Amino acid sequence: MKLAGEVAVVTGAGRGIGRAIALAQAGEGARVALLARTAAEIAAVAKEIADKGGVARAFAVDIVDFDSVERAFAAIEKEFGPVSLLTNNAAAFAAIGPIWEVEPEAWWRDVETNIRGTFNCCRAALGSMRALAKGRIINLAGGGTATSFPNGSGYATSKAGILRFTECLSDSLSQSGVLVFAMDPGLVRTAMTEYQLTSKAGRAHLPNIEQLFADGIDVPPTLAARLSVEIGSGRFDRLAGRMLMAARGDLDLDEGAIEKIVAADLRSLRVNGMPLERPFVRE
User: Fold this and answer.
1) Which of 57, 67, 81, 217 is the most buried (most CB within 10 A)?
2) Per-residue model confidence as pLDDT tens digits over 167-198
3) Three-class SS of residue 218?
4) Is 195 a catalytic site residue?
5) CA–CA separation, 227 vs 37, rounded Å?
């Protein structure tokens, strides 16, 4: 099994992409801690994993609350051992519309959930990872990471921030044995996208989402789940600090393609065509 012996944490694990990731990682031998605010959902996923012969435990946590996150990670380590694979999947996208119309608090909650929640979980996991000089972290990026998303500016801003945070954290951990990756799961039909499709704000300001689904642009959550397993197995360690994309065929990347990405400094947040003096250069 590709993840035998790993202690994995998946946030937002009660449904959608997070659920698929948790099931896939457990199916490859990881002991999986499921984090989310809705206890009933993660309890159901834990039972599903157990029924298939895997090992999982549900922890009801608000990832924006660092004390709550820290307590959860301490409980996970006590039960399973030190966390060696963290997937930051939990996200929010409630503020839909131009910035002069959206509720400021809703906009900020999207940013806070996506960035602060990711930061909190990384910080809680890094103590044991750094002590053991071992660990992998996967931060989910998404729509707006590499292009404008006018009526989803809170979500887009946070997801672009996730990629930069991933780069910063990866560079900060250079030579530590801990590796950090960003991952774009592609367009997946989830509760979040259902809200975009059916809410009044979504219908008014994100009409293209419905067309994307009609055109079959969406992908199943299992693609991101399989990619998370491959990242966790070490297959893509050369791409630490960069973004892998589930919907762009990255499961099929070979060593030659990986080398080209590294050599050209691709899959990172850069200003196209502008030479930058970088304070840190990956070796």
Assistant:
1) 57
2) 999 999 999 999 999 999 998 988 888 888 88
3) coil
4) no
5) 25
Classified as helix, coil or strand, 104 is helix
- Per-residue model confidence as pLDDT tens digits over 211-223: 888 888 889 999 9
Q: Quick check: helix, strand or coil at residue 93?
A: coil
Beta bridge partners of 26: none
CB 122 within 8 A of CB 144: no
CA angle 99, 100, 105 (to 5 degrees): 65
Q: Catalytic pick from 93, 149, 155, 165?
A: 155
Other CB atoms within 10 A of residue 62 CB: 17
| CA 220 from centroid of its chain's CA atoms | 16
Closest by Cα among 205, 8, 272, 267 to 125: 8
Q: Per residue in 89-113, is it b (16+ CB within 10 Å) or e — as a string?
A: bbbbbbbbbeeeebeeebbebbbbb
Which ranges of the chain would DSSP assign to H, the alpha helix? Answer: 16-27, 39-51, 66-80, 104-111, 117-132, 153-172, 191-198, 200-205, 207-214, 221-233, 255-263
The DSSP 8-state label assigned to residue 116 in this structure reads I
Q: With 0.85 as the threshold, say if the pTM is over it.
A: yes
Distance between CA atoms of residues 142 and 86, nearest Å: 17
